[in-house]
User: What shape does this take?
Amino acid sequence: MKALTVQQPWAWAIVHGGKDVENRTQAWTYRGALAIHAGARLSERGLRAVPDIAAAEQLVDPDMIRAEMRDQLVTGTIIGVVDLVDVHYSAGSSPDAIDCCDSWWAEASYDEHGGRTRRDVVHLVLEHPRPVPEPIACKGRLGLWTPPVEVLEQLQAVTR
Assistant: This one.
């Protein structure tokens, strides 16, 4: 199993809020179980956007999502596991890109922390989110990474 560190509240949205596409700038060949690690940094853009997107997708009030999210925004822990089922470039970012994402969460570009605009966006297509009963403390890393053996053992015990 691999892991991906994601800033909060985007990590929460993947595990609890219906976020089925993670936007990145690197395409990977890996497919399979992917632990979602909630990074130490909070995304200001995410704090504004996630409740509105999750509410629109789930047809509920954004304030309900904000209240649910508020108590669950832990950091520095693995909060769930999803299946990474596809990786492709967003439409317009590559000559080979196919416009196949109709997800609310798929972006063609985004502004990252510090103001840099990313335009060559890759969509990581995620399915079957499985929250862990209790967050598992673990140090995150950049890119796709393998959790320590003791963390993998805890994940396998709770996500079967």
About this structure: The beta strands are 2-8, 21-24, 32-42, 77-89, 110-111, 117-118, 122-137, 144-145. Helices lie at 10-16, 44-58, 62-70, 149-158. The first helix runs from residue 10 to 16.
